[in-house]
Amino acid sequence: MAYTCIIQGEPGMPDDGYRTVIEITAHIPIPDSNNAVRSLSPWITTVLPCPDCGQTMIWAERDYTTWHRICNGCGSHWSVMPEVLVEDRQRIVIERARFVQEPLENRGERG
Prior knowledge:
The protein has one helix spanning 42-45, and strands spanning 3-7, 10-14, 19-25, 57-59, 68-71, 77-86, 89-96, 99-100. The chain is mainly beta and 111 residues long. It has one domain (3-28, 41-104).
């Protein structure tokens, strides 16, 4: 099956297979306060830079798959998933979001 990507806002780009694994601190000290959010995984709220342009990737799960993010700067689409917890470090996989490429005979035939 062929896949396509949205790279720097351009749909229909070939999948370049970009994938990286980063690690962040798994536990953020939370101040003792009645207003503090407790038990929130800090990687979910971590601002991650786009590998294409360095701008912020924002959550975009509506109308997309779980863990989907879109760069607020260049428009690249990403899949950002937690992997394993290693001691006090959370491993996160960042890879290009892949979309199934439509067969040539189906393109442009939407009514």
